[in-house]
Amino acid sequence: MTALLEMRSITKEFPGVKALDQVNLTVAEGEIHAICGENGAGKSTLMKVLSGVYPAGTYDGDIHYDGALAQFRGIRDSEDRGVIIIHQELALVPQLSIAENIFLGNETATGGVINWHEANRRTEELLRKVGLKESPTTLIDSLGVGKQQLVEIAKALSKDVKLLILDEPTAALQENDSQKLLDLMLELKAQGVTSIIISHKLGEVRYVADTVTVIRDGMSVSTLDAKAGLSEDDIVRDMVGRDMSDRYPERERVAGEMLMEIEDWNVWHPEHAERQVIKNISMNVRAGEVVGIAGLMGSGRTELAMSVFGKSYGRGTTGTVKLHGKPVDVSSVPRAIEAGLAYVTEDRKHLGLVLEETIRFNTTLSKLSNVSKGGVLDSHAETQVAEKYREALRTRTPSVFQQVGNLSGGNQQKVVLAKWLNTAPEVLILDEPTRGIDVGAKYEIYAIINELSASGKGVVMISSEMPELLGMCDRIYVMNEGAFVGELPADEASQERIMSLIVNE
Fold this sequence. Notes:
By secondary structure, this protein is an alpha/beta fold. The chain has 17 helices and 24 strands.
């Protein structure tokens, strides 16, 4: 097969960091090429070099594309040559329709007047290609994340795509949406589209990829032929530089005294007052225990966590929360923190962190009283606290003065954890703590969770990855449509049992 793309000795430096060091990548025409690596390994940086986000001249090395030397000065340049990148964060305008989004910046216009009939007709064709039946005039806002991802691909197809780059396309999708997307990639391959996929989900990589390139610490370490058959262990070993025979750290947990009890918890939707989102939920967490909440997307797990944490979701909330057997006031976030609760959000970029601020700023943000005297911040104390957590959580960063937005996903997650550990919580609620994080960083976060539970804290863990819940939790509550439909001890739980409780409820 002829090579559509060759990236030779690509080196990219940022102040104080060498993000890419002599990386080589060859993608054959008509194949699906997967790029794997830990967070911060340089995968997204490499794709930004390729697509012109980092223009020619800002990096060293050569890009040969479609038989010629490519020097893309920006995204428009690369798109004109058929290189289309779909980023992890979707770039759609929620207030516009599907058709408006697809042709935004590429309008079907003559003499400055848009031909809406033509735009809608072409949109219908493109939507059929990606398996969507929605009307072209449907607002993006009304679509789920899975369908939005397919609209992004339809948008790419409108530009005569030759090389489609998908950066973590399934990170925010539930299983059935992910499967649709992967099948679509295989369909596009049959139509002659070459794809590059960046993914942490190794099962997906094995399902679609013809070739896998592994990047570690900014260097390309191996290229594996997936068609010949490869195991997840092969990829993991190259990603982290060591065998990870066990994905979950060893633990010895002993459940101690009752720590937190939630009784008869009911929550109604914040806008639709008639809709009950959480229905009569009762649960408990003991000291030194990790309790999981399993369920499909939309089952109400996040809503439950947010409503308990300072009633930050919903209205008309009823029920009691007890800590150490005494009722506590969780009517606002400061009171919930005061009572001993902490909530690590699944949306670290928008709700968990202030991206343009430093690690130091973010770490101390949740409890400024710890680092201030008489209402005046003590910058020395702030630095000490941030440094303490940087070392304890092994956050990879040159200093605590680094902007959080420049960190990899795994390291951002550690800063969110540090921020909440700084409040010294009794119970830590973790919502999708390892979403979009690589295998190596996951292991580190699991180790942190185990250390917390060993120190007598209670941990509640919400996760869409069932193996994660089975590998980490002592007990698992199963949730469906706002209510608990079962509770399983770890030794009785399995993916099949959890799913059957959800389906047969």
